[in-house]
Design brief:
The structure holds 2 protein chains of 2 kinds. Chain A is built from 25 helices and 14 strands. Chain A is of the alpha/beta class. The radius of gyration of chain A is 28 Å and the shape is elongated.
Chain lengths: 632, 291
């Protein structure tokens, strides 16, 4: 269902907006224009829902509640507080955003099923409340509420061209806000959250905060949609905001194509086009429901996906006829733009590698990954008596060990020995008893995302790269040393934001280059690279944040001999840069090659500790791996 | 006081009805891994079919009986056509398919049957009932309770004494392992959906007389059933009935003493409280996931 979110949606969105703005020139019928207006109004909410669902993976079957709050608050403020329409509108939109933040605070902690049910519930409950006696003073209950007239100068905004262009402007604001959001750091962070929340937290992303931010944006634009709807209808009644509208809004996003911002706009226009084309309301409901089901079952990339396919087919024919294709600017400084067939275009890749060679020394120096002489000796990570129990099973039983600064420390042991659980304890994902201290600082109360700031980075057995982002962008999101700061400022693209982004980009480039990941593949989307490459990129992502301690969870699992050698080399590079490494591994030969010291786990206990040579010569250790009766 | 007790009694009966729908939800969730948003509207649509049969001259009981058989078929079809076809979208995709089905069934009901809705639906249960002091206990309430107990007993017997029941339990616990052990999981899912179709019709037949028959009649029931399932714990079948009783009593009390417009809100508050304080519900078990 949650298809790949797209990166460069600004252009299609802009094109659609311009076409909509120009449409009255071609479409002159009043009915047709009113259909387009309604489509645009729903689209205002749909783009926000797309940001919520397609980009951050949160489901909402109750977005129309914010339409309702926008509409009712605006109308009510006009009537009861005698505010002018634009002031009432601003307050109504802000209130919708605030409500979304409050509701979101409850919903984001739930898994998608919980939020699906909760938002659906909310959609139904709110309509009941609006039509009930408790809020009747402000909502008019089932009698409804009439909306005050609104105009700019002599142009009325409740009918005719005034309304049409009010809707266009509203949609433009909403769509461009959402498109801009997908480009800033917060927008990329939520895509990591959509992929895997735990990996996102380990990268330093504040999961709750980011999810809440997207909920707020969704609520804001839906509130704006509600105000426009109020202007359009002139009269509000609770039925207009029935929960079925929330579900239709979701269906609009799905049919339009989740994860594309422009797609839902098309979906909304399509929906109202269909509704208008068929004589009876229930008939159009039926047709749309069938289309929705078909879209979900058969072709879940939606109308936008169809457009993409036609576009790439068209591009193929265009090329075949030898017609020129505008070269995509390989903007290494701003981040490469990715077209669907980027890998087919060798020009972009070589331009990139040329540029990156030029940046080499400058970047390496700036990113601070110059070679540092290895200093081992004092203890960086101290683990004392850590235990974890799952029901009756003791996954870890009183583990104590020291990891010295600058060393590569391997943890080996059979399956189920507790190695990954141990790493999870250090990351903060797994609560445990005992103490873990980094440089004397006890970690017990530090949340997962803060540990990244303290300098602990890790990779996972399953890399969980964001499949629809390029390799470089995946590493870049790991390169921000903090994910704090105001989103509003970010949206405006101030110099500080751009500098921060450049720094992250440079660090990402340095990390990829230092780990010798082939430059030609930097632009490939992570969903298209092999598992070995994904693990390689995962290490680069962890390294880009310049950690002090790097935790590697089975970096060699599932890799062939050549790839294992590449990882071994990567680890040596990282160690030479001064980073302490704790690595879980199964490959004994790999461990001999890279590790300075080695600890053996079995059944949650430490069996042996020392240099690889010592440990692997130990009879007990050999027995664990090979079984009884083996010759040492 | 008498009013309060009457309300509580009818709340319990209402709650057991919610409980059956919640039970169906949890049963489907455990055997197919999908929470079905459309289960309410499946019942609604089937009730419409029964109504059509009744209008064409059959008595209500024969119509209901035929309806039950058709519901089993309908339930199986729903699974085969909507859920089993083109698998591989993941859980989110399956959930959204059920949402699409929800929309489709509502639209179909409107188009085929809905010209003059709402319709009044004949009650299958007798009216009136015995009094205990000032408390009125309707026959319909008593029979509902008895019916629910019968269904629970039937399920308990099925799980305990039949091979199919055992296989259901296996699939509910660990579907991939069950498949490896040779259990035909897809065939069991079809059977589960057939059973669900019948239970949904049953709920519809008992709801329609009070709420009138129209295409959105099951929407509140669906929501209450979700709340009940969550309160009971999504992995606990008996918990869903307990959850249903809690929701039923609370909703009836709120409707009577505060106002019907806040009934859904009250259930929503209970749902959110449960998710906040005890996310696994009263009887559910925490799902442990290997990272």
């Amino acid at each position: 269902m949650l298809t790949r979110a797209r990166d460069n949606v600004a252009l299609p969105t802009l094109v659609i907006l311009i076409l909509l703005a120009l449409s009255p020139l071609v479409i002159t019928g009043v009915t047709a224009q009113s259909v387009i207006v309604l489509g645009m109004i729903y689209a205002v909410g749909a783009v926000g829902l797309d940001l919520l669902t397609g980009y951050s993976g949160q489901f909402s079957f109750g977005q129309f509640v914010y339409f309702a709050t926008g509409a009712y608050i605006m109308a009510s403020l006009e009537i009861n507080a005698h505010l002018s329409w634009w002031l009432a509108l601003v307050i109504a939109v802000a209130a919708s955003g605030l409500l979304a933040a409050l509701v979101g605070a409850a919903m984001v902690r739930l898994r998608f099923f919980g939020s699906a049910v909760g938002t659906f519930f909310m959609g139904a409950a709110v309509v009941d409340i609006i039509s009930g006696p408790h809020l009747a003073r402000w909502t008019g209950a089932s009698n409804g509420l009439s909306v005050g007239a609104a105009s700019i100068g002599t142009e009325s905004l409740t009918s005719g061209y005034g309304l049409f262009y009010a809707a266009v402007i509203g949609l433009a604001l909403a769509a461009l806000l959402c498109v801009r959001y997908t480009k800033i750091r917060a927008g990329i962070a939520v895509r990591v959250i959509k992929e895997n929340e735990i990996v996102a937290a380990a990268m330093g992303i504040r999961v709750f905060r980011e999810k809440l931010r997207v909920q707020t944006v969704g609520g804001l634009v839906a509130g704006l949609g509600g105000c426009l709807l109020a202007l359009n209808l002139g009269y509000l009644s609770p039925d207009t905001f029935d929960v079925s509208q929330s579900i239709e809004l979701f269906a609009i996003v799905a049919v339009g194509g989740t994860g594309s911002i422009a797609g839902p706009i098309l979906g909304a226009l399509f929906f109202f086009g269909v509704t208008n084309a068929l004589p009876s309301g229930s008939d159009s409901e039926l047709v749309f429901a069938l289309i929705f089901l078909a879209a979900v079952v058969l072709f879940n990339r939606g109308i936008y996906g169809i457009g993409e396919q036609l576009g790439s087919q068209g591009l193929k024919y265009w090329r075949r006829f030898g017609l020129p294709v505008p070269r995509r600017r390989a903007a290494v400084t701003a981040g490469p733009t990715i077209s669907p067939d980027a890998t087919l275009d060798p020009g972009a890749a070589s331009a990139e590698s040329a540029a990156s060679v030029l940046l080499d020394s400058a970047v390496a120096g700036r990113a601070g990954l110059a070679r540092v002489p290895r200093e081992t000796g004092d203890v960086l990570l101290q683990v004392r008596d850590v235990s974890v129990e799952f029901g009756g099973l003791k996954a870890l039983d009183g583990i104590s060990l020291d990891v010295r600064r600058g060393e590569v420390h391997a943890i080996i042991g059979p399956n189920g020995a507790g190695k990954t659980t141990f790493l999870n304890c250090i990351s903060g994902i797994q609560p445990a008893s005992g103490t873990i201290s980094l440089d004397g600082h006890e970690l017990a109360r530090t949340p997962v995302s803060v540990r990244r700031q303290l300098g602990i980075a890790r990779t996972f057995q399953h890399p969980s790269l964001v499949g629809d982002l390029s390799v470089l962008n995946n590493v870049q999101i790991g390169a921000y040393d903090r994910h704090t700061g105001s989103v509003t400022l970010e949206l405006f693209g101030l110099p500080a934001t751009r500098k921060r982004r450049r720094d992250a980009h440079d660090r990402a480039v340095a990390a990829l280059r230092n780990l010798e990941f082939p430059v030609a593949r930097w632009g490939t989307v992570a969903g298209d690279i092999s598992m070995g490459e994904q693990k390689h990129v995962d290490i680069a992502r962890a390294m880009a944040g310049k950690p002090r301690l790097l935790l590697l969870d089975e970096p060699t699992a599932g890799l062939g001999a050549e790839e294992v050698a590449a990882v071994a080399h990567a680890i040596q590079v990282v160690r030479d840069a001064g980073v302490t490494i704790l690595v879980i591994a199964h490959h004994v030969g790999f461990v001999r090659q890279v590790a300075d010291r080695c600890t053996v786990f079995d059944f949650g206990k430490v069996i042996a500790s020392g240099t690889p040579a010592e440990v692997l010569a130990d009879r007990h250790v050999v027995e664990i791996f090979v079984g009884d009766g083996a010759k040492a | 006081m008498g009013l309060a007790i009457s309300v509580i009694v009818s709340g319990i009966a209402f709650g057991l009805l919610i409980g059956i729908l919640a039970f169906t939800l949890v049963f489907l969730y455990k055997t197919t891994g999908v929470a079905n948003f459309a289960i309410g509207n499946i019942g609604m649509f089937e009730t419409f079919l029964v109504y059509e049969l009744y209008k064409s001259g059959l008595g209500i009981w024969p119509a209901a009986a035929i309806g039950l058989v058709c519901s089993a078929v309908f339930g199986g079809l729903v699974y085969i056509v909507i859920l089993r076809a083109f698998p591989g979208g993941g859980q989110a995709n399956m959930l959204v398919r059920t949402v699409g089905l929800y929309l489709l069934l509502a639209a179909m009901a409107n188009v085929f049957f809905g010209q003059n809705q709402p319709y009044s639906f004949p009650s299958l249960l007798p009216h009136g009932g015995p009094n205990a002091g000032s408390v009125v206990i309707g026959w319909s309430n008593l029979i509902t309770v008895a019916l629910v107990l019968l269904i629970c007993a039937a399920f308990a017997a099925m799980f305990r004494y039949t091979g199919t029941g055992l296989r259901f339990l296996a699939v509910a616990q660990r579907a991939p392992v069950a498949r490896l052990l040779g259990i035909r999981v897809q065939r069991l899912s079809v059977i589960a959906y057939m059973i669900a179709g019948c239970l949904a019709l049953l709920v519809g037949l008992l709801v329609a007389p009070q709420q009138l028959l129209f295409s959105q009649m099951m929407d509140p029931m669906l929501l209450y059933a979700f709340a009940a399932a969550v309160i009971g714990g999504l992995t606990s079948l008996s918990g869903s009935l307990v959850g249903g009783i809690i929701i039923g009593v609370v909703v009836d009390l709120v409707s009577t003493y505060v106002g019907t417009d806040l009934a859904l809100a009250a259930a929503l508050v209970l749902l959110l409280l449960t998710l906040a304080v005890r996310p696994n519900g009263l009887f559910g078990t925490a799902q442990v996931v290997r990272l």
